[in-house]
């Protein structure tokens, strides 16, 4: 029994040592001039060692010492494994490790998941271009003064997302974020004015060279996007990780609240660059709501969002519905 206790102490010491530091060698003093040194190269051996009959092992070591074997290597055979118990299969352990690595890769660095692994959190970023529709068409077909230039009418969004699995093929991305609408007008001389009758878009009469004119608005948003997956992986992979074989698509609602808006004109006057920024609501609706279509495969994802309510208050501006096309990363 004392011999079994000694090996138990040895095993416990090894476990404590491997948890506290990288060294995998434990020395146990047994008698005045006797000691046992146990070296382990693979920490997973601990699970297998728990199932050996250490008393039988100790008897074998002592018998070899009594026979005069002063330099030996003891090989543990299966007869020293305790009955009704089996050591951990190394292949099974490797499989578990692989599954853990797959889970880490699936969620990405910095992602969070509870023990049930059905919900995790991440941040994503939207980047795209803005425009708006009037009676189902873009205003550039009518030559309206508020026609925008798609290149330069950027949409930027930062979102905090919770990914929730609800089945083998379904999950939901829901969360909140902040986004910026930028409507850069095709005509650099466009002047946006806030009048008693509503917002107007006219050509600025000043005799200067205009470089830019745009309307900007900032919103706080909430969204709920149910997603359907074709393939094995539910996660949204980061753009730099292309190891992904599933296709995912979803459509869901969003709503936002306007927190700031302004116009900006950039022009040159007397050899100097001037910037005029006017902060006002310009009769923009305080709330926006609409539908977002999102789809992707491998490490890339696209989206389009359409505001169901008009950009401006009813009767206070043109009946424009914002639309955005972009990429999620």
Folded structure, characterized:
With 329 residues, the protein is an alpha+beta fold. The chain folds into two domains: 2-88, no CATH class; 117-328, Porin (Beta Barrel), CATH 2.40.160. It is built from four helices and 13 strands. The protein has helices at 2-20, 45-49, 54-66, 90-107; strands at residues 25-29, 35-39, 119-133, 154-165, 170-184, 190-195, 198-203, 209-230, 247-269, 272-279, 287-297, 300-307, 321-328. The strands form three sheets. The chain has an eight-stranded antiparallel β-barrel with strand order 3-4-5-8-9-11-12-13. α1 packs across α3. The longest helix has 19 residues, at 2-20.
Brief rundown of the structure:
The protein is an alpha+beta fold and 329 residues long. The protein has helices spanning 2-20, 45-49, 54-66, 90-107, and strands at 25-29, 35-39, 119-133, 154-165, 170-184, 190-195, 198-203, 209-230, 247-269, 272-279, 287-297, 300-307, 321-328.
Secondary-structure blueprint:
Layout: H1 2-20, E1 25-29, E2 35-39, H2 45-49, H3 54-66, H4 90-107, E3 119-133, E4 154-165, E5 170-184, E6 190-195, E7 198-203, E8 209-230, E9 247-269, E10 272-279, E11 287-297, E12 300-307, E13 321-328
Antiparallel strand pairs: 1-2, 3-4, 3-13, 4-5, 5-8, 6-7, 8-9, 9-10, 9-11, 11-12, 12-13
Helix pairs in contact: 1-3
- Order of adjacent strands in the largest pleated sheet: 3-4-5-8-9-11-12-13
Structure annotation, total helices: 4
| SSE string | HEEHHHEEEEEEEEEEE
CATH topology of the largest domain: Porin
Structural class: alpha+beta
Query: Helical residue percent?
Result: 10-25%
CATH class placement of the largest domain: Mainly Beta
Number of domains: 2
Strand portion, in percent?
A: 35-45%
Integer-rounded radius of gyration: 34 Å
The appropriate CATH architecture of the largest domain is Beta Barrel
Average pLDDT, rounded to a whole number, is 80
């Amino acid at each position: 029994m004392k011999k079994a206790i000694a090996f138990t102490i040895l095993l416990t010491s090894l476990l404590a040592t491997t948890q506290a530091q990288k060294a995998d060698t434990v020395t146990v003093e047994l008698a005045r001039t006797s000691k046992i040194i146990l070296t382990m190269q693979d920490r997973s051996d601990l699970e297998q060692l728990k199932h050996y009959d250490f008393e039988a092992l100790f008897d074998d070591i002592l018998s070899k010492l009594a026979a005069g074997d002063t330099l030996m290597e003891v090989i543990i055979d299966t007869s020293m494994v305790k009955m009704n118990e089996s050591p951990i299969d190394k292949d099974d352990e490797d499989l578990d490790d692989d599954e853990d690595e797959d889970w880490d890769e699936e969620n990405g660095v910095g992602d969070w998941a509870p023990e049930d692994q059905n919900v995790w959190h991440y941040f994503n970023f939207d980047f795209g271009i803005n425009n708006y529709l009037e009676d189902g068409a873009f205003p550039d077909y009518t030559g309206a003064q508020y026609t925008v230039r798609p290149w330069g009418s950027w949409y930027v969004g930062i979102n905090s997302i919770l990914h929730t699995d609800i089945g083998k093929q379904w999950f939901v991305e829901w969360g909140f974020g902040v986004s910026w609408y930028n409507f850069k007008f095709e005509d650099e001389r466009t002047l946006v004015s806030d009048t008693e009758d509503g917002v107007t878009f006219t050509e600025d009469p000043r005799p200067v060279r205009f470089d830019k004119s745009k309307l900007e608005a900032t919103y706080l948003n909430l969204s709920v996007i149910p997603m359907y997956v074709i393939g094995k992986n539910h996660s949204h992979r980061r753009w730099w990780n292309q190891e992904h074989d599933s296709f995912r698509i979803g459509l869901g609602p969003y709503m936002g609240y306007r927190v700031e808006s302004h116009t900006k004109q950039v022009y040159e006057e007397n050899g100097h660059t001037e910037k005029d920024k006017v902060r006002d609501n310009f009769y923009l609706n305080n709330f926006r709501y609409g539908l977002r279509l999102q789809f992707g495969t491998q490490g890339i994802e696209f989206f389009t969002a359409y505001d169901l309510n008009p950009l401006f208050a009813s009767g206070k501006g043109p009946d424009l519905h914002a639309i955005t096309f972009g990429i999620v990363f």
